[in-house]
Design a protein that fits this description.
heterodimer; A: about 170 residues; mainly alpha; Four Helix Bundle (Hemerythrin (Met), subunit A); 6 helices; extended; B: elongated
């Protein structure tokens, strides 16, 4: 049952990612990325990461994709008729790497040492609570750095997109 | 029936490679940024799968840092796209050759 669910989610994720790359109209690409984000959130729920799933839907599907849609419609991009001329090179590289990864991961045990599986502790607290405790104790310094990154990105976006920020008036 | 960890790694690698091919073969800058988002999501799938496998919540914490970097990348990237469109009236990567040699 869990495997069936995984194969459904994985199939939709792979299919919509291919559509993102292959579709000619940017609006359709963004919409298929939206479907992919929802299915990735479903995958997180099956992996017992409910809080990450919620954040995935709120931040990625709710904020980032809306930003993309705004820009696509603001620039009024028409559909492009052809791909980049390095299409054969890119396709060859992708197929080669993909075959390599699948062969590497599906080879029988003994080729690669199997990862030691940790003993599952009894879940005493919820997922959100556990993330909060780790985030604000062990990872509090990276957390502050992340806020700094967001500040720099905000200032950078304003400076880049404003038309006449440094020009003299009159 | 539990899903083996290698299936998640294969799924993540597939999505990552699709994103990489997308960066290589598309001419529209917006689609290239979308492909970068695909690659970031592939790493997130890996983080969460291994976090579940080792029963360690640190992997899920790193998903938040990835999310922060993705948001910052989108904000700055789209601002750059708007500035480029203003100067060239196009968002095809072929037409930006100022720093090419």
């Amino acid at each position: 049952m869990a495997q069936l669910f995984f194969f459904y989610l994985a199939g939709v994720i792979v299919l919509t990612s291919i559509l993102v790359v292959a579709l000619r109209n940017p609006v359709y690409s963004v919409l298929s990325l939206l479907i992919m984000f929802f299915h990735v959130a479903g995958l997180y729920v099956t992996l017992h990461a409910e809080f990450v799933a919620a954040v995935q839907i709120i931040v990625y599907a709710g904020a980032i994709l809306v930003l993309y849609l705004f820009v696509v419609m603001l620039l009024n991009v028409t559909r492009e008729d052809r791909y980049h001329e390095q299409l054969p090179l890119g396709a060859l590289l992708g197929v080669t790497l993909l075959t390599e990864v699948i062969l590497l991961m599906l080879q029988p045990a003994g080729g690669t040492p199997s990862l030691p599986r940790a003993v599952p502790p009894a879940p005493t607290i919820g997922n959100t609570e556990a993330i909060g405790e780790v985030l604000y104790s062990t990872y509090v310094f990276p957390f502050e750095v992340a806020s700094l990154i967001l500040l720099v990105a905000m200032i950078g976006a304003i400076v880049l997109a404003k038309r006449d920020l440094f020009e003299q008036k009159g | 029936m539990v899903v083996p960890i290698s299936y998640y790694v294969i799924l993540s690698a597939t999505v990552f490679i699709i994103g990489m091919v997308g960066v290589l073969i598309r001419r529209n800058i917006i689609i290239i940024l979308l492909s970068v988002e695909l690659m970031l999501n592939a790493t997130n799938i890996n983080f969460v799968a291994f976090s579940n496998y080792f029963h360690n919540v640190a992997g899920q914490v790193f998903v938040f840092f990835t999310l922060t970097v993705a948001a910052a990348e989108v904000a700055v990237g789209l601002a750059i796209i708007i500035a480029l469109y203003r100067s060239k009236s196009s968002i095809n990567v072929d037409e930006f050759q100022l720093m090419k040699w």
